[in-house]
Amino acid sequence: MNGTVPAYLKNLTYLTTLRLQLNAFTAIDPDFTGILGLQSLSLQDNLLTGTLPVGLSTFTGLQHLTLQNNDLSGTMPPEWASLTYLTELDLSGNSLSGSLPVEWATMNSLTSFAINDQRATLVGSFPNAYANWTTLGFLCAPGYSLGRPLEAAC
Fold first, then answer.
1. 128 versus 133: which is more confidently predicted?
2. pTM to 2 decimals?
């Protein structure tokens, strides 16, 4: 499939898992929002461009989000702080910039967070507020540290 991830998918109100990896999607329709029961969304290995979609913050029940290996750029949206049930987040393989939003400290269900990529131009360090990420067991964010032992593989 190619083009835009279609907004009509939001009408699939009982959908819990959506895996659209290994396609040729270049964008996510801005109206693709709020599937309340969606727990897992994978859009890895597509051709997505632009910034990380703020609209994904409406998927408040989301537990797994993978946007790995696209060409997304820009900063990480503070609005994603509403994803408090998120346990796994993989943003690797994109061209992100800026620093981690302090607002993300509320995402304290995270067990796995990956944001490694040689194209990314991330700055800063984990804010002290990230001490709330006590369930984090896997961190792949070269140059960042939480000051406690974690699984080191990236």
1. 133
2. 0.90
